[in-house]
């Protein structure tokens, strides 16, 4: 085989799935948890499978990778770090990355959110070679699925992680043997990266949008139990409102417009009733 070990960078379910697939190929493997704090779940799961687990400060991790002296596969699997030049120029390393979009569309962070907000009919994942330019490396494999009109970012992300694990297993044999043929990305001059601090429309819900865009905005900003983006807001008459949950129903019981009732703000559009539940006014 081309490699003597595999080093997986990331957090959540995907690093463990990749580690188990590599171990099935008798490849020594270690997981480097790149979450802000050590993930107790990932650590316990790795330990139960007898897979080496580490959580290092970013600088120490980069120093470790830059000093690797044996042919190694680096797998970036939901890894928030951009690998520096010192790592990418280590000739002992071949680094690949999983991106939650169909590159070259939506490079950068939180790609599933932008796919929903911009009304993409489908999305998916891309495994690609890591280069100095973010999400610009040659493509190893892509998998896609349709975005259903009820899907939020959490649901899309979970489906992407499942697909990413399947795709990794599909390319693994050829990847380890150095015979996988990548495809060059068709990059345009208008390519724009999404950053982690960015949100659709600056996280502001515009009640004048058509119903399709309001639905897309709310679902795009909805990561469920994951703390990924800031909470969206509604600005009315100089006041800012936030809410805990929302509901979208295809009904039209009220006059079009904005209505306050109990603990909810109702936005009635033709064929769509938006209920923003348990709202409160933010202090200015």
CA distance, first residue to last residue: 61 Å
Overall structural class, as computed from helix and strand content, comes to alpha/beta
Principal-axes shape call: elongated
The share of residues in extended strands comes to: 25-35%
Biggest sheet record = 7 strands, mixed
Order of helices and strands: EHEHEHEHEHEEHEHEEEEEEE
**Rg measurement, Å:** 21 Å
Helix content: 25-40%
Please tell me the overall pLDDT. 96
- Which blocks of ≥5 consecutive residues have pLDDT under 50? none
The largest sheet has its strands arranged as 3-2-1-4-5-6-7
Record field, number of beta strands: 15
How many DSSP H or I helices? 7
How would you summarize this macromolecular structure in one to three sentences?
Its EC number is 2.1.2.2. By secondary structure, the chain is of the alpha/beta class. Helix content is 26%, strand content 27%.
């Amino acid at each position: 085989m081309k490699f003597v070990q595999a080093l997986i960078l990331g957090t959540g379910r995907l690093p463990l799935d990749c580690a188990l697939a590599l171990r099935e190929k008798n490849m020594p493997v270690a997981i480097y948890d790149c979450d802000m704090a050590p993930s107790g779940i990932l650590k316990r799961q790795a330990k139960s499978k007898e897979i080496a687990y580490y959580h290092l400060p970013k600088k120490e991790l980069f120093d470790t990778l830059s000093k690797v002296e044996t042919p190694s596969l680096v797998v970036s699997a939901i890894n928030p770090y951009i690998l520096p030049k010192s790592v990418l120029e280590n000739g002992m390393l071949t680094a690949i990355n999983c991106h939650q979009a169909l590159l070259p569309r939506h490079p950068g962070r939180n790609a599933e959110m932008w796919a929903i907000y911009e009304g993409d009919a489908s999305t998916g994942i891309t495994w690609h070679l890591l280069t100095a330019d973010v999400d610009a490396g040659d493509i190893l494999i892509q998998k896609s699925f349709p975005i259903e009109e009820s899907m939020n970012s959490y649901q899309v992300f979970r489906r992407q992680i499942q697909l990413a694990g399947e795709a990794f297993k599909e390319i693994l044999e050829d990847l380890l043997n150095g015979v996988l043929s990548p495809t060059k990305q068709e990059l345009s001059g208008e390519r724009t990266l999404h950053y982690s601090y960015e949100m659709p429309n600056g996280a502001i819900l515009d009640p004048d949008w058509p119903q399709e865009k309001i639905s897309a905005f709310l679902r795009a900003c909805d990561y469920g139990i994951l703390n990924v983006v800031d909470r969206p807001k509604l600005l009315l008459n100089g006041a800012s409102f936030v809410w805990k949950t929302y509901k979208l129903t295809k009904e039209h019981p009220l006059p079009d417009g904005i209505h306050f009732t109990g603990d909810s703000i109702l936005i009635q559009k033709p064929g769509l009733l938006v209920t923003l539940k348990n709202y409160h006014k933010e202090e200015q």
